Amino acid sequence: MTILVIAEHENGAVAPATLNTVAAAAKIGGDIHVLVAGQGVGAVAEAAAKIAGVSKVLVADNAAYAHQLPENVAPLVAEIGKGYSHVLAPATSNGKNILPRVAALLDVDQISEIISVESADTFKRPIYAGNAIATVQSSAAVKVITVRATGFDAVAAEGGLAAVEAVAAAHDAGTSAFVGEELAKSDRPELTAAKIVVSGGRGMQNGDNFKHLYALADKLGAAVGASRAAVDAGFVPNDMQVGQTGKIVAPQLYIAVGISGAIQHLAGMKDAKVIVAINKDEEAPIFQVADYGLVADLFEAVPELENLL
Amino acid sequence: MKVLVAVKRVVDYNVKVRVKADNSGVDLANVKMSMNPFCEIAVEEAVRLKEKGVATEIVVVTIGPSTAQEQLRTALALGADRAVLVESAEELNSLAVAKLLKAVVDKEQPQLVILGKQAIDSDNNQTGQMLAALSGFAQGTFASKVEVAGDKVNVTREIDGGLQTVALNLPAIVTTDLRLNEPRYASLPNIMKAKKKPLETVTPDALGVSTASTTKTLKVEAPAARSAGIKVKSVAELVEKLKNEAKVI
Fold first, then answer.
1. Which of A42, A109, B64, B244 has the smallest C-beta neighbourhood within 10 Å, fewest atoms?
2. Which CATH number, 3.40.50.720, 3.40.50.620, 3.30.230.80, 3.40.50.300, labels domain B2-245?
3. Domain boundaries of chain B, sorted by first residue
């Protein structure tokens, strides 16, 4: 059995979700190869070669793979993936964009967002916004799978000594082009990797009030998230959204401030180790999952909490 | 141009689903069903394209049981021109659905196909991408803005770090994210009119598509329940608990 892991990378570095995906591959068992596709990705390939447990790194360095356009990357992954027992990618926006396209090219089902490996062909994944866990078995010749990063502890980024091999294949469908991107800037830790997350909801009332959460987050070294209500109301950008349709987080501590706790929000954070809820409505559903609940006005409680830290 | 919109009948998003006692699945008997929220956004976008004079005809398609006609009628009431039901009683995987949609795309020859980014029951987020692969079209997934310009469509996509814009050759596949638009409600006169709009029913066999699957569900369980928490009385008590009991700060 040989497993191909599609590396997620940005700005010349391997993204953390790749390490969780390699961990899932290690649970399946077998040789682990990593594919790095992009343009000018030499440094990424070198970093990938150091990941613990990886035996080979394949590098496809080509202008067609810049910006990870699925029309070009998917045929590459499908061509290389044919020779593997499993093809894995992190369930990031890139992984979700590319991998179903790969599966269809290979004429197999894709299994989305696994949270555990039961055996080489059997996996667990959440359905219905995390309200049920399905155990699924695949008989596909190549098992094409996206991995939910919070389901697996990251492997070490250092210590491996894999061989790096260039891949010549160039696929350029010519049907799509990158126009531009607008990335949100933040000095705080990345939401999906943060040990502590402080999130605000509709109860924050406006975008300006999020400054209270930023101040608290900076004291804790935390990332700041939001509920869909806060994003839709325009308080914060959408890449801060935690939930079924946003990001899935599983930090050590999740502090939900002014968030009622709708099913869709809980889907994104209920695997946090400790959940704290601060809400003035004592009937809010968030209190049913919170380890520590405080019924209070957030505009008094949050500054007080910040002062006590 | 012709726009094809795929919709799915799913359990209503407000329903708290329960897992069946025999672990064979979730209990959908007597549960309210609706159009998947992302599909509503897809229908709305198609209708707006028609209102702008970009789209000339909107065909809505679903794959599912005969009861899924309700969701097609909803889409017709929202502004779709006609509907196609690919009737299949069994629950199909995304690849089978994508193959069936490919057959419908071949027949209808739309310039743009709009789907939701994921269905809230299976949470797969696969069908649009698979349909794009099978048809050889470009894909604009997780779209928060769609602009048709000549023979291209510019799609602004929600990605992990922010937004990305891509230009796709038509025909193309677009999957909708939450912020693409706010779907309208169907008015009563439009609901009445929708009853007279054409609705064609076909079978997977008639489309010549095999719906065989490489995946089977062995069991479905309820997630592990969290142990009950406590209510603290003050911020000071909260900090004390987090430091000394939970040891997370």
1. B244
2. 3.40.50.620
3. 2-245
